[in-house]
Amino acid sequence: MKTLGDVKVGESSTIVKLHGEGALRRHLMDLGLIKGTSFKVVKVAPLGDPVEINVRGYELSIRKEEAAVVEVQ
Amino acid sequence: MADSQIHVALAGNPNCGKTTLFNLITGANGYVGNWPGVTVEKKEAKLLSDKNVTITDLPGIYSLSPYSPEEQCSRDYLMSGEPDVVVQVVDATNLERNLYLALQVIETGLPVVVALNMADLVEKNGDKIDTDKLSKKLGCPVMMISALKNKGIKELFEQVKKSAASKGQVPEHKFDSSIEDVLDHIENNLPASVPAKKRRYYAVKLFERDADACKLINLTKEKAARVEQLVAQCEQDCDDDAESIITGERYGVIAHIIDECMTKAPAKMSTSEKIDRVVTNRILGLPIFVVIMFCVYYIAVSTLGGTVTDFTNDQLFGTDGWYVLGQGRDAYDAAVEAAGDNADSVDPAQYGPYVPGITTVVHDALVAGGTEDGGLVDSLVCDGIVGGLGAIFGFVPQMFLLFVMLSFLEDCGYMARVAFIMDRVFRRFGLSGKSFIPMLVSSGCGVPGVMATKTIENEKDRRMTVMTTTFIPCGAKLPIIALLMGSIIGDSSTTAAWISPLFYFLGVFAVIASGLMLKKTKLFAGRPTPFVMELPAYHFPAIRSWALHVWERCWAFIKKAGTVIFASTVVVWFLSNFGSYNGSFGFLPAMDGIPEEFMDYSVLAMLGNLVAWIFAPLGFSTWQATALTVSGLVAKENVVATAGSLLSVADAGETDPSLWTAFAGMFPTMGACVAFGAFNLLCAPCFAAIGTIRNQMDSGKWTAIAIGYECAFAWVIGLFINQFYNLLVLGQFGIWTIVAIVLLVAMLFQIFRPMPKHAWTDEDETNTASAAVSA
């Protein structure tokens, strides 16, 4: 399974499914990370984590650990 | 509630300009209250232009889900029946995500007015929004405003008053027909008591299996089963779970609305993106961050702020006095130099426009008014009250400068980037990137350091940062370090330069070790806090909000200082000046035949003797050492002055060799001396900082936990130092050596063991409070 954390900087992809449960999952959904949403990984922080993605026209910071629940194409 | 009274709720995403709007329309006269039970701020104030309108500023949220306390509070307030109308503030530059919350608010059935904020920026980007069409699609009025530039606000509130008189709307937007069918069925199963305009809201909530809503509606068993069956069927048909289906439908509706109502200019790189290319750059990000933080620290703590604070402490509140614009200072200094031993006889007023310090003024006024020089009243007012207030208010200028800069960094959007850059480092210690700022600030002063934790949204992270941040040695602890260095090595400047950093490392070690240990206690356990955070677009903060931000923080401190902290200071004055001598109890300095070291007979000495046994394993069981620690609670730099008076080395500073010798003589061994130093640097901070902790924790229990933990940790470290010094250097072994070894093993175990899997529930807190303290 390829996840959001595996997408390289500068590449775009589309969300296939949101795994996980509870507050984190709902929070990601509320922020617009749902099935079919396309996004772009803009950059990675100086120390290698977290990553910054552009989704629905805004910038979002997400740790690789949490990005692992987002399955992408 | 009178008919003419209107309650308006202000809702919106974080960073949508809601607070700017609130400050603008209320004139920032709002009072800040807390939501019951959780530390979520709610602000309430009257509209400036119409006192009959009350505005409630809800916390910035992304959704009305039941998961976060902010969101729960917001929706409880919306459904409480109090608000007559909701102003939904929408960041027009980020319409898609902002409308997601707007749709949910509209579904509540309350009258809603959508305020499209930052409309000027949209125009600048070349985009166009058709507000009439948007209004039709959403089924509620849509107004263009710019809170920053004060545009469209009057029209907005004319509309708000009109809408408040209306009965609210049934939402216009429709989901996919298959979902609508299910929602219709659920609506039919709702009890008749649910009013028409709220039926859809509850139908959607039941579809989502929202626990709170289910409890509230309390369907009969058969109906609940019927609804569950409908939802399960729908989930199967869509091959997705209910929450995802609804979220997907909402974003689907929004995509349609935006297609019809907005024409976008071709995408180009925004200013924010350009700034971020440099500021959060993989290579430059860290250096830039270091430079910015160094500047903030340098200005607020080292140079400007430090100067102003010294001035407030020594000259304005103290006995030194000052010259207007410094005129005459040089001449006076020269005269003092020339007078040599008779320096006291030089009258500073002869050399320029001299203003005496408040202590001097008050003292002279009291003596002139017939009060006995050095008597009870004089001592209480000058030493106790003015001295105490001075010690506290001395921090205000420093704090002010610091908050001016930190609030700017926060309001312009840089703090979010700091968290982005530093998260990796702090996550290891169970904290997030946002904990860095408080730690840095605390190396100057713990009071603004603790206050800086306000930017940490997550409650556990904030509490842990508050608990550990004062371990970092602050400016006032430097004299203690200098005194220690002098006593141990006999030199406070050159050869001992490496000792001073050691105490900083001790502070950093205390933070890291505490982070690692506390994270594994039940108090802070649980899954690591998710760090999913919006990086908002940079913008220059509205001056009004910025100023207000600074003012609120300074004022909170001044209020605290004037009450709790001040009272504590006076209590310590009382304890050290009252006592019994020759069989009579009273004000010691005024007693007949009392020696210079009257503190030997004070209540403080008696109490010191009572608790001194606690410090016996640390090597210092005299009441003097205890008294020094207590005096450090008023202000850490007091430790040196008190040591001077206790040891009868009057007027000695931390660089005076005679004080070093006398101080070292207080302790049986060097190990005990270092243990004393370590304990004083790590234990409870000064009253000012404790008061701030109380303020920030907003809970007496948590304040007690924080202070208790700090003292316990300091004690254990002091024990290690003294016992291991005794064992390794002096070859002594005793029962306390065993205790120290056992504690060390326990500590290492707690630091290095893997994260335990607690069956953690939020209700557990009370039972585990003591566990954390003893850990």
UniProtKB/TrEMBL annotation, chain A:
Keywords attached to this entry: Iron
GO molecular function list: transition metal ion binding
Tagged with keyword Hydrolase: no
Superkingdom field: Bacteria
Pfam family membership, one: FeoA
InterPro entries in alphabetical order: Fe-transptr_FeoA-like, FeoA, FeoA_core_dom, Transcriptional_repressor_C
Location of the Ferrous iron transporter FeoA-like domain: 2-73
Presence of the UniProt keyword rRNA processing in the record: no
Signal peptide stretch: none
Record-given protein name: Fe(2+) transport protein A
Protein encoded by which gene: feoA
